[in-house]
Prior knowledge:
Layout lengths: L35 E3 H7 L5 H9 L3 E3 L2 E2 L6 E3 L4 E3 L2 E2 L7 E6 L15 H4 L9 E2 L8 E7 L2 H8 L7 E7 L5 H9 L1 E3 L2 E3 L3 E4 L7 E6 L5 H9 L4 E9 L2 E2 L8 E3 L2 H9 L1
Parallel strand pairs: 9-15
Antiparallel strand pairs: 1-4, 2-3, 2-5, 5-6, 7-9, 7-17, 8-9, 10-14, 10-15, 11-12, 13-14, 15-16
Helix pairs in contact: 1-2
Amino acid sequence: MNRFKGGRGKSEQSGKKHExxxxxxxxxxxxxxxxxxxxxxxxxxxxxxxxxxADQNIALGLVTVNGKVVxxxxxxxxxxxxxxxxxxxxxxxxxxxxxxNKPKGFATTTAEGKGRTVMDLVANATNAKIKPIGxxxxxxxxxxxxxxxxxxxxxxxxxxxxxxxxxxxELDKNLKHEHLIAIKEGFKIEDKLITVEDISYVQGEAKxxxxxxxxxxxxxxxRTIFDHFNYNIVKIDCVAIGHLTKKDLPRGHWKHLTKxxxxxxxxx
Length: 268
């Protein structure tokens, strides 16, 4: 990573329009019956099989709803019910992957009452119940991935096989070479070993501009690292998540991952 380039270059906006306005159309209010769905449709929507095949599998007792086997044809479930097919929980929504180039001033949370959040920025992206993977501080910038794919979430949150993220960090002063080497080789804070995937100076920039790659899902570890060596962080910008970059993705905009990008992400 010794040829790391900062994320300050101009990006060309792709032909695809990126919407980032909050969706004004919320879910319809009414009785619970509006949220009910036939079990065979629920299974078919998950991509496992067709409705006819779903009926056959239901009859065979391969489907449970909230822990109980259901064999009744025409049985209806809520989207919030726990439906399992052959022991594995399924989701009636299509698997969705949205990449956001986060601006400052938005909290990474799905909770209400937190002011402006990243969920406001992706409100128009999909009707699927996507959530952000990991966190970026309210004043941090850069890439944030949203999905409803539990397997991808597990991949990111696994401490051993997590997906690396590359950050462009600006410090309040130049990073001494001996400190850069210490960070690269790993060091201890209160007997806990702190390691990173890689770290280097940003090519062509002052030595307070640092490229650092980590697998942690949050970015608080960055402040822990630089605080230990008495540096203050001025700016944090996530410029890459695995193979995903900010190319053609202006600040504050989002895009759906292509099929190839999703496949590559799952192979990381």
